[in-house]
Amino acid sequence: MFVRNTIFRAAFALWTLLFAPLIPLLWVAGTPAALIRPLTRLWARGVLALSSLLGGIRYTVRGRANVPHGPVLIIANHQSAWETIAALVLFPDVAIVTKQELLATPVIGWFLSHSPMIPIDRTRSTSAMRKMLADCRREVAAGRSVLIFPEGTRRPPASVVEFKRGVELLYRSLQIPALVVAHNAGCLWHENMTLSPGVITVSILPPIASMSDPAGFIKDAQDALNKEVIALAPR
């Protein structure tokens, strides 16, 4: 696995660099979202293919039928880089709330910054929250779903998920159904892009309707996510 992981990291870097020559061309063309977003998803599909071919990581999705038509607030646990990449494939036109530092990643950061990403500056909590809410409302008005990792940072597999304040604010502001998504990616995709072979399970739970009680929503969503995360943890 050490050799395979080394080859995977090299292949990941090469695959990403292949997109670099496109940046000036897309910039001259006016950074058209209609082209950049499909290219970003192509990059994500390539990474998942490389992780399968070289790292032995496959994934399965339960509950695809639970995804409703129209925009939803997707709430997923955060264990690794895998789910951020996979979300671009699993939910093709989703806007992901992510830390601003991700957009500084060479090459792919440029594509992400011009794709449906909602960066948040965690050093400026109040103004960053207002901007996040405005950006999310804009994306929902455009017909996109919004994905947020409620913990705000990666957590070890089977860790208890505790929602940050932003989840309730988003639910209250957007007034759309919520979709809880659990997975166990952190068991196979580790720090520093070290992979272990196996199958990642993604579980999409039934949608939670828009309610008038945000506090009740937080409890229901948090309980449902924690129950599923524990169920997916290795025994």
UniProtKB/TrEMBL annotation:
The chain crosses the membrane at residues 12-36. Pathway: Lipid metabolism. Keywords: Acyltransferase, Membrane, Transferase, Transmembrane, Transmembrane helix. One of its GO terms (biological process) is phosphatidic acid biosynthetic process. The keyword Zinc does not apply. Residues 72-186 form the Phospholipid/glycerol acyltransferase domain. CDD domains: LPLAT_AGPAT-like. One of its GO terms (molecular function) is 1-acylglycerol-3-phosphate O-acyltransferase activity. InterPro entries: Plipid/glycerol_acylTrfase. Pfam families: Acyltransferase (PF01553). PANTHER family: 1-ACYL-SN-GLYCEROL-3-PHOSPHATE ACYLTRANSFERASE (PTHR10434:SF40). This is 1-acyl-sn-glycerol-3-phosphate acyltransferase. It comes from Aurantiacibacter atlanticus.
